[in-house]
Write a structure and sequence with these properties.
Blueprint: H1 3-20, H2 36-42, H3 45-60, H4 71-86, E1 90-113, E2 117-118, E3 125-127, E4 134-142, E5 172-176, H5 182-191, E6 196-200, E7 229-232, H6 234-240, E8 246-267, E9 272-282, H7 292-309, E10 316-323, H8 331-338, H9 342-347, E11 348-354, E12 365-367, H10 384-397, E13 403-405, H11 413-418, E14 423-427, H12 436-442, H13 466-485
Parallel strand pairs: 4-5, 5-6, 6-7, 9-10, 9-11, 11-14, 12-13
Antiparallel strand pairs: 1-2, 1-8, 3-7, 4-8, 8-10, 12-14
Helix pairs in contact: 1-2, 1-10, 1-13, 3-7, 3-13, 7-13
């Protein structure tokens, strides 16, 4: 960074401290703490990029993926853990069991009649996570469909056993997205004798991910069905609903309900152990690709911040988490939070989440902690608004635009806000479509996904926007510094010791994305 950028970042720290934390005292260079400008200089974009590059090399050496339960994720976890241990952190590898899933060979969906047609995988259809295997050619039979769709989402297609009354065994069930989860739909279809299941989007127009015409992505939640299950766009499903339609559906998948993976947890040896400032990102990719933006970018950003913060004699305890199996339903972070005692939860004063911070057609999204836009998800737990304001101050100070993004539950902040821990963080966009207003504000291309390689093999190093990575890495460093030295934190609690770096303790425990499979 140039000197002007350093001055801007220092201004951001000062402004954010004054605005967000009225009783905050950021330690000046002459006191026990470091110079905030020097700290901002130490977290360099080039160093963050080197971590991203290393994760790409790990994926290249392991079949092009870093998915949980694969050697690529194990190598990613080892790389991060080794770096953190070398920097002096107390590192824990928290192992947990999860149901693993992958496509052994690409799934095929072809229309046989009327008129042959080959549907394009990941454009027209996707394999639902935890789909079973099999190859079947059969008649498509609609299940309680609402066509044309109602003006508002309301379909209950496939949600009740009675929907399958009269279903012909051996047919392929065509089910509409609706009010119950995908797993229930698939299980009821299998029980009715379906040889395969096609779940298509419901059909209502909307903006970005709220558009119920686009390709549906989801998970069945667990490997409870043994027949092929795919999801499609509304247009594909609407076409397949025509009487007399026959298709071939072929899937070759692997599910292991007892696969093991791990979270990497690192805690500083400095600061008050009763006032924990926690930063996290998921380290796993989807099976289909290396996951360099999603979420090598966020992992690299907090890793470099952690390495440079390791020597800081902070007032509060810093804890960094690199979650496993996020892509299968926030499993790592949910496991971690579920294992915390009430006392341990109370010690975590805030959680900052960084998932996809370098999308190629980016916006600078800040999680909307106070529901200031009054749309979508509600506000986060008390104190989340203060976190949002801190990030807003940072972007204002460096002259960059920003926008709010909802707590939709699609990333690892979900389990934390679920137990009342204030949360915030950054997000540059996934499969949603950039609007004309956003293109005017942030640059990039309107009408195109924020990340056109989301959950695909092309989410490689070439999918990283260096500017977004640099700006958001600066925001991560700023937030870590401010909260590491703040006397008062969003999660409340009594002031810590007057001198940073005192106190002992450590970890007292061994963690589309529509991961839930519940349609919204």
């Amino acid at each position: 960074m140039r000197a002007r950028a350093h001055k801007s970042l220092l201004t951001a720290i000062t402004a954010a401290s004054a605005l967000v934390l009225p009783v905050v005292s950021v330690v000046p260079a002459s006191a026990a703490g470091p110079d905030p400008q020097a700290f901002s200089q130490s977290v360099k974009a080039a160093a963050v990029k080197r971590h991203v590059e290393r994760l790409q090399r790990i994926a290249d050496a392991n079949g092009g993926t870093r998915a949980a339960g694969t050697p690529g994720h194990e190598a990613s976890a080892a790389y991060v853990a080794d770096k953190l241990r070398d920097a002096g952190y107390k590192v824990s590898l928290q192992e947990f069991e999860f149901p693993f899933f992958r496509e052994v060979t690409p799934t095929v969906l072809d229309r046989v009649s009327p008129g042959a047609k080959t549907y394009v995988r990941n454009t027209d259809f996707r394999t639902m996570t935890y789909s079973g295997s099999g190859k079947v050619t059969g008649t498509v039979q609609g299940v309680d469909l609402v066509l044309p769709p109602s003006p508002e989402p309301s379909s209950t297609s496939g949600c009740e056993a009675s929907d399958f009354a009269g279903f012909t065994r051996g047919n392929i069930a065509l089910i509409q997205r609706g009010t119950c989860n995908f797993q229930l739909k698939a299980e009821l279809a299998q029980a009715a004798g379906a040889a395969g299941v096609i779940i298509f989007n419901e059909g209502q127009p909307g903006e970005g991910a709220d558009d119920r015409r686009i390709l549906l992505t989801g998970t069945l939640g667990a490997p409870t069905t043994n027949i092929p299950v795919v999801s499609t766009t509304f247009a594909v499903g609407d076409g397949l609903a025509a009487a007399g339609t026959t298709v071939t559906l072929s899937a070759d998948t692997e599910s292991d309900p007892h696969r093991k993976t791990r979270n990497v947890l690192a805690e500083s040896r400095w600061g008050d152990p009763d006032k924990v400032v926690m930063l996290g990102s998921h380290l796993d990719s989807v099976v289909e690709g290396p996951g360099i933006n999603d979420n090598g970018s966020g992992s690299a950003g907090i890793l470099e911040t952690a390495l440079k913060a390791s020597v800081l004699p902070t007032r509060n305890r810093l804890r960094f988490a690199f979650w496993g199996a996020e892509e299968l339903g926030l499993l790592g972070s949910a496991h971690y939070v579920a294992g915390l005692s009430a006392e341990e939860k109370a010690k975590i004063k805030l959680y900052l989440n960084f998932d996809m911070i370098a999308s190629p057609n980016y916006v600078f999204g800040i999680y909307d902690g106070d529901d200031s836009d009054a749309t979508g998800a509600p506000a986060g737990p008390a104190g989340s608004d203060k976190i949002e304001q801190l990030f807003e101050s940072y972007f204002t100070a460096i002259g960059k635009p920003y926008t709010g993004t909802d707590f939709t539950g699609r990333s690892d902040y979900g389990p934390f806000i679920g137990v009342g821990i204030p949360a915030g963080g950054l997000f540059t966009g996934a499969e949603g479509i950039k609007t004309a207003d956003e293109a005017a504000k942030f640059g990039g291309e309107a009408g195109v996904a924020y990340d056109k390689c989301y959950h695909q093999a092309c989410d490689t190093l070439a999918n990283i926007d260096d500017k977004a990575l640099a700006v958001n890495s600066g925001a991560i460093a700023t937030a870590a510094f401010v909260y590491a030295y703040s006397r008062t934190l969003p999660g409340g609690g009594a002031p810590g010791p007057t001198r940073p770096g005192t106190g002992g303790g450590g970890l007292g425990h061994d963690h589309d994305h529509d991961h839930s499979g519940v349609p919204r």
